Amino acid sequence: MDEADFKALLAPLAVSWWEADSGLGVVDSGGAAFDDRRATRRFLEALHADGGPSGASGCVPYRASFEGRTFHVHWPELGGGPGRHGSRGVAIEVVDRPDDDPYATFADLAPAAAFVRDATGRYLWANHAYAHLYGTTRDAVIGRHLADVDEAGDITRLLALDQEVLTRGRPVRHTLTYRRVDGCPGRAAGYRFPVRWGAARCIAGIYVDVTDYAQVLDQRHQAEADLQALRDHSGLLCVRLTPDGRVSEAGTVVADVLRIRLSDLIGLPADTLLARTPERSALHRVWDDLISGRRRSARTCAVLVDRDGRRRRARIHLSTVCGTTPGVSGVWAVGTHLGLPHQARPDLTAAQVRILALLAAGHSNADIAAKLRLSRQTLDYHLSRLRALLDAATRPALVARAYVLGILSPQTWPPRSATAAHPASPV
After folding, report:
1. Are the beta carbons of 317 and 302 closer than 8 angstroms?
2. What is the mean pLDDT of residues 54-61?
């Protein structure tokens, strides 16, 4: 590498090299540690006033402070100190901050992106994490202006924020947007605050890259919005239950069916929404299997009770939800095949339910009596009793009321009880 290549290599770095004659006149200089030759001259004069490294001979490292920054100076064997004839030195900036900062290495290697700029927007210091946001190195950031690093459309806004920080004299919470290395927009959140950098008042900032976190939050909010739209507009009864059986989420359809405000529904025990029927006991057994982890999903029936005491039969599809911790974190219950609302039906005997099923199938009184092995008088008694219990005056009215009250299942043929344990069983 010749001298020209060496100068080109040092030009963008935060170092300064110079060649001075015996009268401290700068013959040649370069590097980005100083803005111009006048700054280099002031630096040399400061070294001369300080006397240089005492007893310096050979290539001796020497630490010097200049305008709030710390430099590491080497004197080659040709001179031995400043002011000697033909002396040539290289001042390498190792810490671009005041000497009394005990956290220099910590700040340089911290995962949070941090920087210090002067009032004009020139970077005085930046750590590796800050440079990484822009896909470069800290040496390529330090000494450059804000306009050389950030998007052109953001310069005015960022400089105005810097001035606000200096004027107010206290930290400001801020979200920084920038262009990532892959060309996608990035986002970082943190604070800007005034600091003393040497004798000047400057602006410091520390940020954490929250791009991925913000994207995950956006996706989660979108998923929650989609789920809410599905709950509210699908027409299905959608309820999320906690492991102890309380309502944690519900759709507006559920509130409408139960004739209760959605805000009042949240937190209610699900048991208070169920009628005390055989289906309720069966549902409890299924629930125990789900919460204990023995089953992941189940289908069953339930009779819901609204605020006015009316009942509606529904098929319930249950699915467990597993969270980050072991065990079941909740259960989604989705109701389908919702029946018509009705008042609590009277308790009927198995024989009375069989009679209603045979009536619905179109059998005559003689056929019903023969199938059930009843006398005509006994059958007439049961029919009279059913007309009184169901408030129905005729055979068609008895059949209609049996379906409305949920005594007979509307999804089966031949007709059978809605609570039949087996498809082939009439009751």
Report:
1. no
2. 46
**Rg of the chain on CA atoms, in Å:** 42
- Residue 368's pLDDT band (boundaries 50, 70, 90)? confident
Provide CB contacts within 8 A for 308, sequence distance 6+.
259
Cβ 330 vs Cβ 242: under 8 Å: yes
Q: Which residues pair with 64 in a beta bridge?
A: 71
Dist CA 353 CA 407 (whole Å): 7
The SS3 of residue 12 is: coil
Nearest to 357 by CA among 424, 413, 421: 413
The verdict on pTM exceeding 0.70 is no
Helix or strand holding residue 41 (H, E): helix 37-50
Rounded Cα gap, residues 203 and 194, in angstroms: 5
d(CA 119, CA 308): 71
- Asked whether 178 and 188 are in contact (CB, 8 A), the reply is yes
Number of alpha carbons in the 13 Å side-chain half-sphere of residue 62: 25
* Helix or strand (DSSP H, E) at 115: strand 113-117
